[in-house]
Amino acid sequence: MKFLVIALLGALASAAGGGPVVAAGQAGAVDKAGEWTELFNGKDLEGWVSRGLPGVFKVEKGEHGNEIVGTTLTGRENTFLCTTRDYGDFVLELEYKCPEIMNSGVQIRSAFNPEMRRVELKGVPPLPGKPPGKVFASPNHVYGYQVEIEFPRGRNAGIYDEARRNGWVFPQQNTQQDRDFVKQGLDRTLFKPGQWQKLRIEAQGDRIITYLDGVKRADVRDTASATGFIALQVHSSQSKRDIGLQVHFRNIRIQEGLRPAVALPAPAVRD
After folding, report:
1. Which of 215, 241, 236, 246 is nearest to 96 (CA)?
2. Beta strands 21-22 and 36-38: pairing type?
3. Domain ranges for the chain
């Protein structure tokens, strides 16, 4: 009975506080449902692997501890810092700080094509509003859902299909959804280039929802991939203006498992 009471009290405490956080240094471990796992151990890039240009991602000391820093380099390759294991249903939270003119993002449910040729992917549906057709993974490239980090076009926290269908999963382009999304995305009361902002991504079954500083941005159902690794992205550039720009990431944590509240229908799209 004593152990039962302790277990019940622990469960109530977890429910009240959103679940305990697994200590840093256990990055990528499989944990009990409802617990948070730190994906960045605060010391080094253990649990991550870089794909793309060398030397883009490093750990550097910040104001409140170490951060993962990605730097734009000259080249034609986008570079990705990828987790060494895959995730299916989860809630991911992180904080980032990005300059206004830099292009970055967070990959989820993604994969890597090691071939030096395009590889056809079977069973991938067309993008919303697009006709069906063959879908290919780009050669020697990470592909999958990317939650966008960029300011000039107002598409921050939108969902782009990187190196696969090469288009927007959300918002659906040339619709009222798209126009409303961009309008919100250009509002400087929500988007703060050069300042820390909190990104939350809920990937539950075929539904993906994103939030920026607690404001919902994307909400869509799509079945292109149900599992895959998580990655931080730095977009390549040929412009001298962009070389040396840096994006910072910290407090990267994940909670695995399904959340019943996300089983509701995604909102309809209006033309």
Report:
1. 246
2. parallel
3. 48-251
* Per-residue model confidence as pLDDT tens digits over 240-262: 999 999 999 999 999 999 876 55
Q: Which fold has domain 48-251?
A: Jelly Rolls (2.60.120)
Nearest to 65 by CA among 248, 213, 247: 248
Q: Which two tokens stand for residue 136?
A: 């290919």
Backbone angles phi, psi at 86, to 5 degrees: -95, 160
Given this model, what pLDDT does residue 53 score?
93
Q: Which tens digit of pLDDT belongs to each residue from 57-71?
A: 999 999 999 999 999
Beta bridge partners of 58: 69
How confident is the model over 111-158, as pLDDT tens digits?
999 999 999 999 999 999 899 999 999 999 999 999 999 888 899 999
139 cis-preceded (ω within 30 degrees of 0): no
Query: Between these two residues, 268 and 199, which has the higher pLDDT value?
Result: 199
